[in-house]
From TrEMBL:
It comes from Streptomyces cinereoruber. InterPro entries: LysR_HTH_N, LysR_subst-bd, WH-like_DNA-bd_sf, WH_DNA-bd_sf. One of its GO terms (cellular component) is protein-DNA complex. Belongs to the LysR transcriptional regulatory family. It comes from the Bacteria. Pfam families: HTH_1 (PF00126), LysR_substrate (PF03466). Residues 1-14 have a biased composition (Low complexity). SUPFAM superfamilies: Periplasmic binding protein-like II (SSF53850), Winged helix' DNA-binding domain (SSF46785). This is LysR family transcriptional regulator. Keywords: DNA-binding, Transcription, Transcription regulation. Residues 21-78 form the HTH lysR-type domain. GO terms for molecular function: DNA binding; DNA-binding transcription factor activity.
């Protein structure tokens, strides 16, 4: 049977060890060791001289050694004090690092960022790079990625369903964009179209081809660009049936109901039976970017992801310049 005395001896400590000095006391010790003058040390520490003297006495009691020799004329370190000073400085420096780290953690962003993507933007290298950098900088931010359709990707921003979106400009008024990449646009044609046997075609050769249209809620500014409307020679664009998402668009093209223009990445990302991709020699390229509402630009989570996108874009530009210089060499 365990007696009360034995149980008490085996019990875990319920409070701090009275022999353990506090970090605050060690800081006072270090400052006094540097000043060797109670009045100057107290002024530097913003405490009274009597409070400093009391804390040093308590520290000596806890450590069981005398740290300073005091006289009416001078304060000097004892041999024990000199031996312990380096360790005390190490503890104070470690506590300072801990405090700075805790402060940094407290300032780190947290919360939920909703990111929209259209088409294959979620799979693009620049999208991965931006979100990876955002996580490295702000690991407490939870990112929710949502796939958006043609018909609602701008509405999702204006309704605040998403905070930012990886998409393809142009964008309507009120939306800002950080450019991330540029690539050619290709003609997406039915596999039965005679033009698919050509390596390259001119835009004028597509004048009689109807273009798949989009729902009326899609900003016309955006689809006019993607339909190449108007054509450079003034030829009006004929529109075919409506598609509200990429798969619907590709299905209509495969059925021969019309054609469309897509980024060059679509050739690798969206190969489908019944369709072919053909280069167009005189079609301006497309751009990709991160978009957000101008009114939300100063929101902390939006600022964070925009900053990450800007960093990724700058790094890509620098790499392109270095690549160009190597080519010239």
């Amino acid at each position: 049977m365990v007696t009360g005395e034995t149980a008490a001896e085996g019990a875990a400590p319920t409070g701090p060890d009275p022999r353990t000095p506090s970090a605050h006391q060690l800081r006072l010790f270090v400052v006094l060791a540097e000043e060797l003058h109670f009045s100057r040390a107290a002024a530097r520490l913003f405490i009274t001289q009597s409070a400093l003297s009391q804390q040093i006495r308590d520290l000596e009691r806890r450590l069981g050694v005398r740290l300073f020799d005091r006289s009416s004329r001078a304060v000097t370190l004892t041999p024990q004090g000199r031996m312990l000073l380096a360790d005390a400085r190490g503890v104070v420096a470690a506590m300072d690092r801990l405090s700075r780290s805790a402060s940094t953690q407290a300032r780190r962003l947290s919360g939920r960022l909703v990111v929209g993507t259209i088409g294959a933007e979620a799979a693009m290298p620049y999208t991965h790079a931006v979100l990876r950098l955002l996580h490295e900088r702000h690991p407490l931010v939870q990112v929710d990625v949502r796939s958006l359709h043609f018909a609602d990707h701008f509405d999702a921003l204006f309704r605040h369903d998403v905070d930012v979106a990886f998409l393809r400009p142009p964008v309507p008024p009120g939306v800002e964009v950080q450019h991330l990449a540029t690539e050619p646009r290709l003609a997406c044609l039915s596999a039965s179209d005679p033009l698919v046997d050509r390596d390259r075609i001119a835009l004028a050769e597509l004048a009689r081809h109807p273009v798949i249209d989009v729902p009326p809620q899609v900003p016309r500014l955006w689809w006019d660009f993607w339909a190449a409307d108007p054509r450079p020679d003034g030829t009006p664009v004929r529109y075919g049936p409506v598609a509200s998402d990429l798969e619907g668009l590709l299905h209509l093209v495969a059925q021969g109901k019309g054609m469309c223009f897509l980024p060059a990445a679509a050739r690798a990302l969206f190969p489908r039976p019944g369709i072919r991709y053909v280069e167009v020699t005189d079609l301006p390229p497309s751009t990709a970017g991160l978009a957000w509402l101008r009114e939300n630009r100063t929101e902390p989570l939006v600022e964070a992801v925009v900053a990450a996108a800007g960093h990724v874009a700058s790094a890509r530009d620098r790499e392109a310049v270095r690549g160009g210089n190597r080519t010239e060499d």
